[in-house]
Each structure stands twice: as structure tokens, then as C-alpha cells.
Amino acid sequence: MGLRSDILNHQVSALPMREGLIVAPDARLGETMQKMQAAHLGCVVVVDERGRPLGKFTERRLMRLVVAGKAKPDTRVGDHVFGAEDCVTRNDPIHKMIRIMEDRQLRFIIVVDEQGRVIGLTGQKGLMEYIAEHFPRQVKVQRMQAKLHMDEREGA
Amino acid sequence: MTLRPRRKGSTLGEFEDPLSNYDEPTYADELERAMAEDTMAAMVTTPVTTVSADTSVQEVLRMMIELDIACMLVTEQEHLLGIFSERDVLTKVAGDYAKVKDKPIRDVMTTGPVVVYETASPAKALNLMAVGGFRHVPILDVDDKVVGIVGPRRVTHYLQQLIEKHKP
Predict the structure, then answer these.
(1) Which of A40, A117, A137, B158 would be A51's cystine partner, CB 3.0–4.6 Å?
(2) How many domains does chain A have?
(3) Which domains does chain B carry?
(4) Closest in B90, B130, B160 to A99, CB measured
């Protein structure tokens, strides 16, 4: 099977998925930022009491708050979320997820179960890891910071 | 001087094709071929927006929001000095913006980012991003000058284009 047919036929469950940071709408910005830094994750999912997504809070949203002077430690995160509908289930095909990400210009997409509860996060990173697995040759031979030329001449 | 061992059966002075053992790569479909054999020119975003190292943090953030971009390349005479991304906003700026906003971006940028040359394949860049965990990778030409940048959003766009283009 080739990469194209895999993307068309495989389901989201084939992608690497991150557990995702989940917070309540009343979570404060200061503690949320600490969680994002500790998890090295650029997005938290805000959920209701049943675990269903109310939206995402991302680094992009944080940057806008910072510039607007609204990024206070006690700022309520639930007031600055978006994209509650940016969801897929584990059984959705990968190509559908790509189309959603491309149409809505998303970096993260929320994975929900049949009841609509959040079970994790995937997105561009998961997709890249999935594609990388199709090119083991490139993974094995490449060096970080490989240069096209030598810094100094060799020989006479 | 080291001599290459001769293959069994060859005699001294006989021409030996150095590519005789080369296995031509095979691809299962057109998408795989494009990923492995195209160059970064097919994927990168150009022209790329850059700032000088003296630009203030506040100004860089304002530009990133206005241009709707996730990272900014910091250059000097087209040569890359560093990169400043949304992650740097989270880790270095957001907690102390009042103190940091007037500082030059060089104080908070990430220096020595991993780069890819424009002659590399998309698969190579993607692997670098996936394995190394880099979200944005600057693209350089042979003179080490910045010619573009590739990020996840661009990758998704490239993939979607190829999937649509090569519909059976």
C-alpha cells in the first residue's frame, strides 16, 4: 500500500495521539500556561462537566491576549476558547481530518469518542509522524544540520 | 590511498560501474514519489517574512498577529540568526511581557535552528520535523541565505494538493 491509499483508507486511530491537556472553563491563565509549558503542548482543551469540548485555547490565542494586555494570571481561560467543532472520532478517515485542518487552518484537532467526550489530541504533528513512518530511508540516512558543502577546503 | 575492493570476477583495469549495485528506489504511488523526489521548492512558503535582531519583541508579536504566522525568522543580510515562535511567546514572553516587550528579539529568539536546504526532498524535511520535533524549519540556499520556511500548515496544504491532484 502506498502513502496516498493509506491516507485515504486508514482511520484517525492510526495516527499518534497525545493525551491532551484538559481543563475546566474556570481554569486560570497562569496555571494553564504552566501546564502547557510542562507538557510541551501548544493547546489545551476546555471541557464541560461531561467531558465534551467547549473549545481550545492555543499559543496563538495566548499571543493575541499578550499583545492586547489581557494575559493576566487570573484571566479565565473559558472566556477565550474557540473551535469546539474542530473534532474527529478515531474511526474517521485520515483524509477527512486533513481536509478539515486545511479548510479551517488548524494545527490541533480534538479526538472524541462516540459520546462526544474528549479522548485526546492529534493534528499536524501526529500527521507528520505518520508520514515519516512511510519514509524510513530518509529517517535513517539524514543528519541534523547536514550541510551542502564543507566549511573549509580539503586538500591542496 | 585506499583501493576499493574489486568485485568477484572482475580483472585489473576492467571498468567497474560504481552504480552497478545501485537499487533504484520504487514508490507505491505518485504521492510517495513526489514526497521523496520533489525538492523543497514545491512546498516552501516564499517570500518569507524576516526581521532584524534589533526589532523589539512587541513589534515582532504585532507582525506575527497581523500576518497570521506562527513564527518569525531573524536574519542579518539574509543570513539566519535565529527563529522566534509561538512557543517562545509561551515560555519566554507571556509571563513577563511588560519587562520583555521593549527588548530586542535577539534576547528571546532561539538561536541555531535546524535548517533544511532547498535541494532536500519534502520527505526529508518532514522527517526532520517529525523526528526532531521542530514545527518550523527554515529553508536555505547553497549560500546559506534564507529562501523560505516550511511549517505544519504548509505541509498539510501540500499533502492535500497532492491527494487531490493524483485522484485516480
Answers:
(1) A117
(2) 1
(3) 38-165 (3.10.580.10)
(4) B160
